């Protein structure tokens, strides 16, 4: 089996004005993701995805890595990972380059599974075909009644764990948490995401309230570079600390784990280096007696890749399912995800076990001849009018 072609497909969804949502990163005007398709000489296709600057991803993948990979055997996944890492070392290691490597790596795993006629999680040594999943939404809402109804709806749809966005101000954060707890009851897990908006003082204060409300984990009170504050908070907090969606590769997670900063790591295959690197991060976390709960906020391909990783890790805790109306999650695949009693199922089909809904891909593709329009695309903003930076409070 040899790699014959590699294609990059950038997707763009513009959110209608009436459906835009606000959180610590501002008001989101659209969503972005990038698909990567790898075709072999025997007409097998591997699928991966990356979340980064779409135009830079095309340059790295099609302009730099594609010529190096053509003619290679995609089943040599680990060897190709090292080749790509070495090739991008001088401008990579974090950010767009490692995310580009991750998209290709996921596609190679998909092809290896298809060739061996086994799902990826089995190739990784896993056996679980059902894993815990949580509903990720509950962004800022001026109406606590609406927040109450939204939280309850996820329980009605089969979730047993939900995540909410905080980081607005102390009064809102506590009121919103109290509202969601009333809505879901005492037996449903609540995760709080502070979106890197807290000072150490506020993080400690709110941590006490989070403990009182039986918060399942306490996510990203600080930026990933602020390891010292994570360490100090962990010493003074009885709620498990989680972070990692804004970190890249084993080296970044190793720093946090060595420092004793976290209880739960949150790598994402479409950001942190693909299935290969996320699995390595999970193994490293296990050595530090920490759990792994993958982040997913971009697309269904990344979610599926993360599901395979969590299935195979002995310390794999749960996966994140975006419930904000993201078509890259809801409509991108032919077979939708099904949640039953808090669990999401993996397909027994070979590789990733998924197929794209080509009509949706065609509808949402950003042509390579067009530049990305200004907008706020969740973690990435383009255009000064969409840039939001809020000092920690």
Summarize the structure.
The protein contains 14 helices and 17 strands. The protein has 393 residues and is an alpha/beta fold. It has 2 domains: 3-118 and 357-386, Enolase-like, domain 1 (2-Layer Sandwich); 121-345, TIM Barrel (Alpha-Beta Barrel).
Describe the structure.
The protein is an alpha/beta fold. It folds into two domains: 3-118 and 357-386, Enolase-like, domain 1 (2-Layer Sandwich); 121-345, Alpha-Beta Barrel (TIM Barrel). The chain has helices at 54-69, 77-88, 96-116, 120-123, 144-156, 170-184, 200-212, 227-235, 249-258, 269-272, 274-287, 300-312, 327-330, 358-364; strands at residues 3-14, 22-23, 26-27, 30-40, 45-50, 130-136, 161-165, 189-193, 217-219, 241-243, 264-265, 291-294, 316-322, 339-340, 343-345, 375-377, 380-382.
Characteristics:
393 residues, alpha/beta, Enolase-like, domain 1, TIM Barrel, 2 domains, eight-stranded parallel β-barrel, three-stranded antiparallel beta sheet, 14 helices, 39% helix, globular
CATH C-level class of the largest domain is: Alpha Beta
State the CATH topology of the largest domain. Answer: TIM Barrel
Number of domains: 2
Taking Cα atoms only, what radius of gyration do you get, to the nearest Å? 20 Å
Tell me the major beta sheet. Answer: 8 strands, parallel, barrel
What is the overall silhouette? globular
* CATH arch. level architecture of the largest domain: Alpha-Beta Barrel
- Separation of termini? 55 Å
Helix content: 25-40%
Strand order of the largest sheet: 6-7-8-9-10-11-12-13
